[in-house]
Specification:
Largest sheet: 5 strands, antiparallel
Helix content: 10-25%
Radius of gyration: 23 Å
Number of strands: 11
Distance between the termini: 97 Å
């Protein structure tokens, strides 16, 4: 009987460790809202209305700073706000592995949230629709939960120290656009002066 119980416990432990990975709770708070801004809001960040947009959680190994290297969690779709600016995507699991294949149970991971306001169902659609407002949050880190512990460690939270601070998608404020325009005008003027036949 003891051998059967020990064998069963060993099998359970093996199952847990073989599928080891880190978990995170994909939920925001009232101080880390999903917002948008454009001419309709006077360029003031405004919570995305319920069901009027989507957010996705992407991961990469700790220290990654290139957004193109972040990956959407496999088999996971985006979530829409359940109340203005607030989303609740439940527990998300980073794959087991190392490097860009996954993480060890309970490891710290780099995360970023991308989102869009508009009717698009997928990120690629949002970028090409011409009507969706889209963007990325700052890259942040989360200490993930370890589901292989007994009892399992709770999922990491997005909003801890060094964590998610909110996401604003949309058009920059007019002052930012004006600065960009002034910079572009200055470059054109300098180029024309260099090409003028009277200049050496």
């Amino acid at each position: 009987m003891k051998h059967i119980i020990l064998s069963a416990l060993a099998a359970c432990l093996l199952t847990l460790t073989s599928s080891g990975q880190g978990t995170v709770s994909f939920n925001n708070t009232g101080t880390t809202l999903f917002q948008y801004r454009d001419f309709s809001t006077g360029y003031v960040p405004t919570p995305v209305p319920t069901g009027a947009g989507m957010v996705e959680l992407l991961w990469a190994p700790l220290g990654t700073s290139d957004l193109s290297l972040f990956q959407v969690l496999p088999g996971v779709t985006g979530v829409s706000p359940i109340t203005p600016g607030r989303f609740s995507g439940g527990t998300r699991t980073i794959p087991a592995g190392s490097g860009f294949t996954g993480i060890a149970p309970g490891d710290t991971v780099s995360l970023v949230i991308r989102g869009w306001k508009g009717p698009a169902t997928f990120w690629d659609q949002a970028q090409t629709s011409g009507i969706d407002l889209y963007g990325y949050s700052d890259i942040f880190t989360v200490n993930t939960g370890d589901p292989t512990m007994i009892p399992p460690q709770p999922p990491g939270v997005l909003t801890g120290p060094g964590g998610f601070t909110g996401l604003v998608v949309g058009v920059p404020e007019p002052s930012c656009l004006a600065l960009c325009g002034c910079g572009a005008a200055g470059l054109v003027t300098m180029r024309r002066r260099r090409q003028h036949p009277c200049n050496p």
